Here is the input.
Amino acid sequence: MTQPAGPIDAEQSRDIRKRWLLSLPALLIILVAASGPLLIVLLYSFLTPGPYGDVAWRFSLEGWIGVVLEKDIFDDTLSLADAHVSIFLRSAGLSLMTTVLTLLVGFPTAYFIATRPERSRELWLFLITIPFWTNLLIRTFAILEIIRNEGLINTLLIDLGLIGRPMQMLFTDGAILVGMVYVYLPLMVLPLYASMEKLDFRLVEAGYDLYATPFRVLRRIIIPLVKPGIVAGSILVFIPALGAYVTPSILGGGKNLMLGNLIELQFGQGRNWPLGSALSITLMLIVMVALLFYVRNAGSQGARHG
Amino acid sequence: MAKAFSVQRQRGFTAIAIGCFFALYLPIIVLVFYAFNAGESLSSFDGFSLRWFARAFENQQVIDASLRSLQIAAVAATVATIAATMAALATTRTEPYRGLTLKYAFINQPLMIPEIVTAVALLIFFARIKIWTGYSGLGYLIAAHTAFCIPFAYLPIRARLENMDLTLEKAAADLYATPWKAFRYVTLPLLWPGILAGFMLAFVISLDDVVITQFVKSAGQDTLPTYMLGQIRRTITPEMNAISTVFLLLSIGVVTVFFFVNRKRV
Amino acid sequence: MKCMTATMALTAALLASTGLARAEGELNIYNWGNYTSPEMIKKFEDEYKVKVTITDYDSNDTALAKVRQGGSGFDMVVPSQNYIPIWISEGLFLETNPSQMENFKNVAKEWVDPEFDRGRKYTVPWAMGTVGTVVNTDVYKGDINTWAIIFDTPDELKGKVNVVPEMNDVMDAAVLYNGGTKCTGDLTILKKVRDTLIKAKPDWVAMEYGTVEKMGSGDFSASSDWNGSAFRQRLKNPAIKYGYPKEGFVGWSDNLAVLKDAKNVENAKLFQNFMMDPENAGMNSGFHRYANGIAGSDEFMPADMKGAPEIDIPAEFAGNAVPSMTCPPEVQELYTKIWTELQK
Here is the structure.
């Protein structure tokens, strides 16, 4: 919301008006089918839970208090809701690791696609998305089939005589990570590709002319140029991963709640819609602040060269 | 054969990319393999059979759900991509103006809350409209899907735009091209890879959505994921693998057509 | 771009066509996924010239939330018995008086006047079963008719036990195991329940639904489970047995009701009556693999279901069954807190 210095001339204000008009359809759709209804959630967070789900129309702060404080059911003492904190940290940690890993795998892959001959690039791009025409659950079950005790990898390793007994891969944190990276990979690769596709290799050449090593070229020239893609990809992976619970519970065994489960529980068998609403708004605020901070920082370096 | 030095080469990148494609398709091969299982298990193969394909094709509920999924994804991804392209043009390559950051946060807002919350909110909101208007068609699902597809289409397009400068468009304007012509013949072709990436993301995201659909759908509006979810507490059979295989074939068909059409164009 | 416009036009046309397909003689059923026999539906459609549409839900809470908000266009729903008093008290059901219907004479006598729907004013039986244990008896030879399999896991089963993550089922089992009564709010019992759960959890390998697959493949050697699922597992591997815990096990049922805002009330009533016919109920059981509460339907079930110990509770255990029921909200809140703590 920074204002440009100096008086705004007529052309500029016309430009701004045109820009508002252009963004209107997107803003309207989101207002009607995503943001608007959120006001309901905000309202619900200040009400009393209904006896069997839903809400009773009585003002209450219980929902919000429940986000951070917990009344021990046995001795009535108030304490920090450490269950909520530890569940949040678990989800955030998993999200962060997923983002980093998809970036590490997705960057070379997007680079590979972007450096193919122009005519085959779109084909490679399709190849990334084809697996995602199948259903998420079925895909996750297929991964499970590969890493099970009697699954593909273990059978192969035992047949080759490399290991004596099956390795326990299923129901480990590693399994969750593998699954998450699999599920979220296209969300990283596609934005990266979109910003790499037009990479100006004359700049890279100039780098080599100055005797830079390939790694230095990567770090000093390529990465800064594709930064918008990295920012977009990271957002698209990190935020949805924060609410993910299907993949973690199938591959990780589901012994621990993820943030997504915790919120779903409140709207389901927990029958505490105000707490669920308050938890969601808390999550949204945290993400929004982090996002704006991230975009401002990354954007101020990346967006200027245009 | 000795390879010439290429400025594009980064050590190990090709290996990672090939490994990545391999890892991406390994589960898909397993999935297709079990679609031909004679038994009803996803983990022990009891011989080759086409019975799950036959069963899926006889199951009207599955066929309807599949068509509905494709229908919703096609419309939602198209609308979302168009809206997102316009929004991206409006929010990049400009000096900061009042409301820009807010706009940005707003467009990405559907990403920022867990699906279950949007789902419950939409349930309450749309139920009122359903009762009020008496309309309970697919429009609600399409609107909901379009909304959460917008950020997925917007971010790649925006990333692409940020890498483009305004020189060419300015040149076109200097040559008396109308704004529309400048857009159609200069901006759009340059932006196309971003739009394509955004559209494909939006499409698969819509195709996979389950939580929001579950809460918004009216009678007779199951999509493939909600049909699938209904079975998770019961037994999941290779029927779903068979349908997924058909979807894969379909996607390969789309790609092939696209590829040939494109070849002719170039 | 052209291609996109074409897709849009095409879908718009498709949309319009699906919207108009509202012929006479319809019935919209909202039911659990994979729970309705397609052959039976076909029979109903042919007999009464009615087009039936099935839409799935995955939990009682989703179904309740959706129908309560209104406008979703369903005629019938199949909630579990512990939710039925909620549906009734919120006025969501239409009083169709199934007890006056022609086929009501076929309802098995223990289901004629259930506590959750006195006098059967609203519902007819759809399916019923129990929650118990499944154990691979090749791995563990001891007594399987006890919740100790889950809560005091024998050494042979440690690290091989799964728990199906249905909060109410797990909490009920733990309460019964600690000598409490179902839906107890007694804090001394609940304290023991919490300690039992937290102590038991390290011995579990997972908390998930996929028991049929993983008991079959050996990833699990024991689990808490529904009887229908246990039945399928034994068909695959005869060593897998279903246990009826002596501390008490919950018996549940799902029942078919007509919604107050149903548009096709007459068809819905016809369907309620249709479901109480032994042949139709038996056909449906052959599909969903649970008992159905209609006397004489055994005859129409697949041979493998007749006398199966998972489907018909053996007489020696029948006394330990505890009917599933709605817990008061304040008890439910305590359960949710313990459940969250267990999985934090």
The radius of gyration of chain C is 22 Å. Residues 24-128+252-305 of chain C form a domain with the D-Maltodextrin-Binding Protein; domain 2 fold (CATH 3.40.190.10).
